[in-house]
Amino acid sequence: MTFMDRRLTPARPDLAAISLKGLVEAERFVEGRPARVVQPVVPLRGAPRDDAMLDTELTYGEPVAIYDERDGWAYLQSARDNYVGYAPIGAFGAAGPATHRVTALRTFLYPGPSIKSPPLGLIPMNALVTVTHLTGVFAVTDSGAHVFARHLAGLGEHEADYVAVAERYLGTPYLWGGRTSLGLDCSGLVQTALEAAGFQAPRDSDLQEQQVGTAFTLAPDLSNLRRGDLLFWKGHVGIMTSPAELLHANGYHMAVAAEPVAEAVRRIADKSFGAVTSARRL
Predict the structure, then answer these.
(1) What residues does the NlpC/P60 domain cover (predicted)?
(2) 89: burial class by Cβ within 10 Å (0-12, 13-18, 19+)?
(3) In whole angstroms, how far apart are CA 38 and each of 46, 169, 208?
(4) What is the maximum span of the chain, computed from C-alpha positions, in angstroms?
């Protein structure tokens, strides 16, 4: 089998996506069944077990291709960032075209046009919905759920400043594999903020370091950093909110925190990820 990244390649010894025929070895090749996420937030794991590590999260309305279903688990690939893994089968429903995305950090789904009705669920920023019509201040989706319309934007509408989006997550708890305002990790923060601003980014920091923006030579005294730059370590990424301040989801604070970049660089070099590996500019 030609080496391909397990995170992005829907292939196992027993089956693989039909698009990979001739590129990988597998017992059989299958078409992916289109589906979408119908639960607010769904764990995507590297193995079909509840105790397997959380690789990332799928969010409401996210389109996927399901390649296998067994023992309560779906083996799938997300259309959002091509991530491959296992998630509970019950989290998916029929595929359908989205019309809007969530712009609030999180918003409730209601069963009807009343904020006093018990919510059906809480969906995060960048979740996708299909709006069929409006009723008062609510957008009604194809599932019948009601969403506060001002928490939505059309798919072609984006935030002007991805850094401002990231700053809204300040204080959010750190969660390995998380990508919502209830918990996220360093690359989840970067991916989510960029998506809100109309930029598609890979899920993990090593892939972001390869693909997002353009690398530039970092001055030894860090003096050429500016707002919006991404700073990378081996296994970590942060966002510059000013020439001197770094915003990042990190295990030291166990939260999204802002701190002087020089202080962060010193501490990270001493205690965790080592030296900065690159700086990149969008």
Answers:
(1) 156-282
(2) middle
(3) 21, 24, 28
(4) 57
What is the distance between the alpha carbons of residues 246 and 263, in angstroms, rounded to a whole number? 9
Residues 173 and 269 in one domain: yes
What is the rounded average pLDDT for all residues in the chain? Answer: 97
Asked whether residue 171 falls in the same domain as residue 275, the answer is yes
Residue from 179, 119, 168, 181 nearest 147 by CA: 119
What are the pLDDT digits (tens) for 31-67? 999 999 999 999 999 999 999 999 999 999 999 999 9
Torsion, CA 64, CA 69, CA 72, CA 77, rounded to 10: -30
pTM of the model: 0.96
User: Which residue range(s) make up the domain with 119?
Assistant: 100-154
231 and 276 in contact (C-beta within 8 Å)? Answer: yes
Name the residue type at position 58: L
**Domain-located, residue 181:** yes
Residue 253 burial by Cβ neighbours in a 10 Å radius (0-12, 13-18, 19+):
middle
User: Are 177 and 255 in a shared domain?
Assistant: yes
